[in-house]
Design a protein that fits this description.
10-stranded mixed β-sheet; alpha/beta; IsoCit/isopropylmalate_DH_CS; 351 residues; Isopropylmalate Dehydrogenase; 11 helices; two-stranded antiparallel sheet; binds glycylglycylglycine; globular; oxidoreductase
């Protein structure tokens, strides 16, 4: 009897709906080729759902997802719903309730994709951003004081727990052991005088457990400059929730386009489902026009299959993505004239 993989798909908003169709097309084709079954259940949770129900998902939404092997997400956010409402109503609760503390975002300069940085060859940018995903600067703790007066101020708290910091640092070092044995820490301990010195302290302690791994750390401001000047310096880059979020848009932009970048929200202990999504957002300006690049969604699907014990299918999808990015058909953002559907179909056929 063949394995069945049960996936909750949440296309979400904007181009999430366009690229999800292609992600499913490619994963279904991979399943047929490699002899397993994909069993999809689709959820319409989104800003449209919010407009109808006053919430991004039902009150028991997390429980509805609990028994799936993984969650496959498109994009979240649309004009009319404030971004903090849409993110905190859907994406962030899933990450937190399922303790998906490791957000893994690989960055690779693919053949056929042009870096905006001069003289960069395919493969010359090859790093992994490891982003802390459940605490840090992303938070709802805080308060307004003297609201509506001249003395108005707002205070937001960032929480860094020893457990939370150590487990993401450990994850980054373990990743480095399987790659180039180099970990860079993103910090800002010269300005953020409480949380970031603590982060640095835990980083130095964690590094002692991995004498084979070369380490360095940069303040986030100069780190962004070095991503642009010297992206080949980096192997694994570990950062807090906010810094990792910023770096994982910047790095794929240096490698050509954020549109192809994937993201795995992992619960490494596999007690809960993990979630896979493209790094990009819902891009309302091009939603429904049929020109969104589906590669970020499809690459995220490859990461999902790898996580769920189908490494051959995952690798085949990556080869198919590389072939189509190099030879076409390609969407306009990567220099072609193809539609989202044409590119998705080409990747499915290249398997
Ligand atoms: N692909 C999911 C999505 O819509 N991401 C956009 C976004 O703003 N994400 C914020 C985050 O990853 O924390």
């Amino acid at each position: 009897m063949s394995t069945t993989i049960r996936i909750a798909s949440i296309p979400g908003d904007g181009i999430g709906k366009d690229v999800m169709v292609e992600g499913i097309r490619v994963l279904d084709a991979a399943a047929t080729k490699f002899g397993f079954r994909m069993d999809w259940k689709h959820f319409d949770w989104s800003c449209e759902y919010y407009a109808r129900h006053g919430a991004m998902m039902p009150a028991d939404g997390i429980d509805q997802l609990r028994d799936f092997d993984s969650v496959y997400l498109g994009a979240v956010g649309f004009p009319g719903v404030p971004d903090h409402i849409s993110l905190w109503g859907l994406l962030i609760p899933i990450r937190r309730e399922f303790d998906q503390y490791a957000n893994i975002r690989p960055v690779y300069l693919m053949p056929g994709v042009k870096s905006p940085l001069a003289g960069r060859e395919p493969g010359s940018i090859n790093m992994m951003i490891v982003r802390e995903n459940t605490e840090g600067e992303y938070g709802t703790q805080g308060r307004f004081e003297n609201r509506g007066t001249e003395d108005e101020r707002v205070i937001g708290e960032a929480t860094f727990t020893r457990k939370g910091v150590d487990r993401i640092l450990r994850y980054a070092f373990e990743q480095a052991m399987t790659r180039g044995r180099h970990v860079t820490s993103a910090t800002k301990s010269n300005g953020l005088a409480i949380t970031m010195p603590y982060w640095d302290e835990r980083f130095a302690l964690m590094a002692r457990n991995y004498p084979e791994v070369r380490t360095d750390q940069f303040h986030i401001d100069i780190l962004t400059a070095q991503f642009v000047r010297n992206p080949d310096w980096f192997d694994v880059v570990v950062g807090s929730n906010l810094f990792g979020d910023i770096l994982s848009d910047l790095a794929p932009a240096c490698a050509g386009t954020i549109a192809i970048a994937p993201s795995a929200n992992l619960n490494p202990e596999r007690i809960h489902p993990s979630m896979f999504e493209p790094v990009h957002g819902s891009a309302p300006d091009i939603a429904g026009k049929g020109i969104a690049n589906p590669v970020g969604q499809i690459w995220a699907g490859s990461m999902m299959l790898d996580h769920l014990g189908q490494p051959e299918a995952a690798a085949a999808i990556m080869r198919a993505i590389e072939t189509v990015l190099a030879e076409g058909p390609r969407t306009p953002d990567v220099g072609g004239k193809a539609t989202t559907v044409e590119m998705g179909k080409a990747i499915a056929s290249a398997l």
